[in-house]
Amino acid sequence: MTASSQHTAILHTKAILIPSEDVTIEILAKHHVDKIWYPVIKLNKCPLPLFMGKVSAGFPSPADDYIEKTLDLNELLVQKPAATFFARAQGNSMTGAGIFPNDILVVDRSIEPVSGKVVICAIDGELTVKRLIMDNGQWKLQSENTDYPDIMIYEEIDMVIWGVVTNVIHSL
């Protein structure tokens, strides 16, 4: 069973973001890659105003008109720039985790992929996003939508975890 039969994958393109430069031609050919995107190591600062008062999601409250500080989205979303890359989600298998089609996933390669973390991985050469779970001594990639089955991980499956998803960016 491959990741594509689960309807959960990173958006299929002929371009791919490679987590590091130590990638062989064989790996690129296996993923049918025409273009490579490396992570940006130096992030430009982009401080934006962060207002002190909180915005009520229930009943309106008087707004505070002063700025607490500035907020740089790079600092908020990217803890380790050299180990971080972005991927665009496709499919509905992770909607229960708040990941929807076309969301941008912030992925950190430096975080250990332990049980309970949402990960990006390649299974038999196809990328997918799932929750990594250890269940009764058996590893699996769990869907966050009951319409999609989990993927059991066995030794004979060619699987590589590319990183742990730390944040999801989506438009309203």
Q: How would you characterize the overall build of this protein?
A:
- By secondary structure, this protein is mainly beta.
- It has 2 helices and 12 strands, in the order E-E-H-E-E-E-H-E-E-E-E-E-E-E.
- It starts with 7 loop residues before the first strand and ends with a strand.
- A hairpin with an 8-residue loop joins strand 10 (138-142) and strand 11 (151-152).
- It is globular.
- It has 2 domains: 3-43 and 78-169, Umud Fragment, subunit A; 47-76, no CATH class.
- Strands 1-6-7-12-8-9-10-11 form an 8-stranded antiparallel β-sheet, with no helix packed on it. Strands 2-3 form a two-stranded parallel ribbon.
- The longest helix has 6 residues, at 25-30.
- Residues 1-29 and 31-38 have low confidence and may be disordered.
Q: What descriptors fit this protein?
A:
172 residues, mainly beta, Umud Fragment, subunit A, two-stranded parallel sheet, 12 strands
Short description:
This protein has two domains: 3-43 and 78-169, Umud Fragment, subunit A (Ribbon); 47-76, no CATH class.
